[in-house]
Amino acid sequence: MTLRIKRAYEAASASDGCRVLVDRLWPRGVSKEHAALDEWLKDVAPSPALRTWWKHDPKRMDEFALRYRAELDGNAPTQAAVQELRALAAGSQVTTLIYGAKDPRVNHARVLAEYLKE
């Protein structure tokens, strides 16, 4: 399983394989055509409470990753979404996790990709 991450604002390409939006909110200013998604899995995104606490602060990234992983292991809707994402990834040579955050290093999609690879 090859997992990649990519901003929603970058153009889709054939090399992206299966494109899955992993944000709870739709990326501002991105049309459905531009997004070119195969799936939108809101429940794999961090909870609103966790996202509000984090505020994409690089200083909180390590603690955020721990809390987010706990959420991914935790409740039933999130676990079901994680299993759906794993099934999508297993059915495609490449799966690209699409996210809306500005920083390619400080975002939940990076944590999610690492989590899925374990």
From the structure above, extract its key features.
globular; 118 residues; 5 helices; alpha/beta; 4 strands; 4-stranded parallel sheet; 42% helix
Secondary structure topology:
Layout: E1 2-7, E2 18-21, H1 32-35, E3 39-40, H2 48-54, H3 61-73, H4 76-90, E4 94-99, H5 108-117
Parallel strand pairs: 1-4, 2-3, 2-4
Organism: Cryobacterium ruanii
Protein name: DUF488 family protein
Pfam families: DUF488-N3i
Radius of gyration: 13 Å
Quaternary structure state of the chains depicted: single chain
What's the arrangement of strands in the largest beta sheet? 1-4-2-3
Global structural class: alpha/beta
Question: How many distinct folded domains?
Answer: 1
User: So how many helices?
Assistant: 5
Q: State the low-pLDDT regions, or none.
A: none
Total strand segments: 4
The coarse silhouette is: globular
Approximate strand percentage: 15-25%
Share of helical residues: 40-55%
Order of helices and strands: EEHEHHHEH
What does this 3D model show about the protein?
This protein is of the alpha/beta class and 118 residues long. A four-stranded parallel beta sheet has the order 1-4-2-3, covered by helices on one side. The protein starts with a strand and ends with a helix. The chain has one domain. The model has no long low-confidence stretch (mean pLDDT 95). 42% of the residues lie in helices and 15% in strands. It is built from five helices and four strands; from the N terminus they run ββαβαααβα. It has helices at 32-35, 48-54, 61-73, 76-90, 108-117, and strands at residues 2-7, 18-21, 39-40, 94-99. This is DUF488 family protein.
